[in-house]
Design goal:
Number of domains: 2
Order of helices and strands: EHHEEEHEHEEHHEEEHEHEE
GO molecular function, one term: acyltransferase activity, transferring groups other than amino-acyl groups
Distance between the termini: 29 Å
Strand order of the largest sheet: 1-2-3-4-5-12-6-11
Largest sheet: 8 strands, mixed
Pfam family, one: Acetyltransf_1
Shape: globular
Organism: Streptomyces marincola
Number of helices: 8
CATH architecture of the largest domain: 3-Layer(aba) Sandwich
Strand content: 25-35%
Protein name: GNAT family N-acetyltransferase
Structural class: alpha+beta
Keywords: Transferase
Helix content: 25-40%
Number of strands: 13
Length: 287
């Protein structure tokens, strides 16, 4: 087995997508290369290779075929694991352990860490061994019943690049570190709703598939307003998805249930050196 840093190339990004598709066995990462989800995934990989070259690793066999991949990002004083995937044929053979060791080295000396994890036994064992506390999470999914959802209690406007400083400021207050360059990438693929008044400040990213990608707010009141506004903005027929809700995010559970969404178990929010940020809904990719 060979471990090497990922290169900023389409070929390497597609190798990561091949591994992730094999590891997770679903359509999360798209089908054909021109599929919208595939294009977004490739951009995500290349974005992280650009911003965090020492945190992005690929495992290959002796023939150069991809076996596993791990992508980590470092934003100020928070380390995050954006992707960790090992192909089924390489699982249980040490590839995952070596990949985790390499990306952990990238965050050496950084106390705070975050991972949004699927409920995979081998992966969760590695995360726990690395010192992470595993917080069980829930997800909300389904069609929004707008008639059941209370109207927002104040203004929430369409945001954009002009709100980068505000969003970074909210990030620092809520999770202890700004997302910085990740906002640029998120704005390529998502709408962002922003609120800023005497009740507090916050933002919520929503993609065109109905998924809440990331939400951060300085008060529960603003968080409820942002999530409600985002759900109400979905076109008819588009199902909503709100993931990685810990018990600290009951405000989001209440909004989702009021909107007629279904609540189910999800995975784990793995944290080191920090409590679950709140009010906060993490991004799987950018945490």
């Amino acid at each position: 087995m060979i471990l090497r840093r990922l290169r900023d190339s389409r070929a390497d990004a597609e190798a990561v997508r091949t591994v992730a598709t094999a590891a997770f066995g679903d359509g999360t990462f798209g089908g054909a290369p021109e599929d919208r989800r595939a294009v977004r995934f490739v951009r995500r990989v290349r974005h992280l290779v650009t911003t965090d070259p020492d945190g992005c690793w690929l495992a290959e066999d002796d023939a150069g075929r991809p076996l596993g991949a791990a992508l980590a990002c470092l934003r100020e004083n928070v380390w995050g694991l954006s992707l960790f995937a090992v192909a089924p044929r390489a699982q249980g053979k040490g590839a995952g352990t070596e990949l985790m060791r390499r990306v952990a080295e990238y965050g050496r000396g950084v106390l705070r860490g975050m991972i949004c994890a699927r409920p995979h036994p081998a992966a969760t064992r590695l995360y726990r061994a690395a010192g992470f506390t595993l917080h069980p999470t829930m997800r909300l999914t389904g069609a929004v019943d707008a008639g059941r959802l209370a109207a927002p209690d104040g203004p929430a406007i369409e945001g954009g690049a002009a709100h980068r400083d505000l969003m970074d400021s909210v990030d620092r207050r809520v999770r202890g570190a700004a997302h910085g360059p990740d906002h640029t990438e998120l704005l390529r693929h998502c709408r962002v709703v922003v609120a800023d008044d005497l009740a507090g400040s916050g933002y919520c990213y929503l993609d065109d598939s109905g998924r809440v990608e990331l939400l951060a707010a300085t008060s529960r009141r603003i968080a409820v307003r942002l999530l409600g506004s985002a759900l109400l903005s979905l076109p008819p027929g588009v199902a909503a998805s709100v993931r990685h809700l810990t018990a600290e995010q009951e405000w989001a559970v209440d909004v989702g249930l009021s909107a007629g969404l279904d609540l189910s178990a999800d995975g784990f929010l793995c944290l080191r050196g920090m409590r679950p940020p709140a009010p906060y809904l993490p991004s799987v990719q950018y945490l």
